[in-house]
Amino acid sequence: MLEPGNNDELPPIPGKRYFTIGEVSDLCAVKPHVLRYWEQEFPQLKPVKRRGNRRYYQRQDVLIIRQIRSLLYDDGFTIGGARQRLTGDHAKEDVSQSQQIIKQLRIELEQVLKILRR
User: Fold this and answer.
1) What is the rounded CA–CA span in Å between residue 27 and residue 32?
2) Residue 25 pLDDT more than 50?
3) Tens-place pLDDT, residues 66-77
4) Intra-chain end-to-end CA distance of the chain, in Å
5) What is the DSSP letter of 9?
6) H/E element holding 15?
7) May I ask the CATH class of domain 4-117?
8) Which of 55, 105, 109, 111 is placed for a possible disulfide with 47 were both Cys, Cβ 3.0 to 4.6 Å?
9) For the chain, what are the domain ranges?
């Protein structure tokens, strides 16, 4: 998963249920055509497809995409190596994703607290 140092460069994930490919592109700093390619290469990425074959990603998908991005761009893995790493590290992945979700919730709660203190 993303290391704490890498999270600073990416925007926080909003508290929405579904995200469009454009929103995910902005949240993960990856072009939409790259996301479509990664869907073919990584079986973990299965966005919901609705009318007009439009993709809708969930929070879990965004976290996986950030993890893939980190493996490929920051850690220097190949597509095959990143795929193997993702399928082989389920226990570590779950813990890392939980830590990411907790960190994200904490940021969102701090923002709510700032609003309430005004």
Assistant:
1) 11
2) yes
3) 999 999 999 899
4) 35
5) T
6) none
7) mainly alpha
8) 55
9) 4-117
Q: Name the packing angle between helices 32-41 and 59-69 (round to 10°).
A: 90
Contact 81, 70 (CB under 8 A): no
Q: Which amino acid is at 5?
A: G
Which residues in 24-58 are b (16+ Cβ under 10 Å) and which e?
A: bbebbebeeeebeebbeebebbebeeeeeeebbbb
Would you say 103 and 63 are in contact if contact means Cβ atoms under 8 Å apart?
no
Q: In what order do the strands lie in the sheet with 19-20?
A: 19-20, 54-57, 48-50
d(CA 70, CA 64): 10
- The runs of H, that is alpha helices, within the chain are 4-7, 21-28, 32-41, 59-69, 79-88, 90-117
Residue 10 has pLDDT above 90, yes or no: no
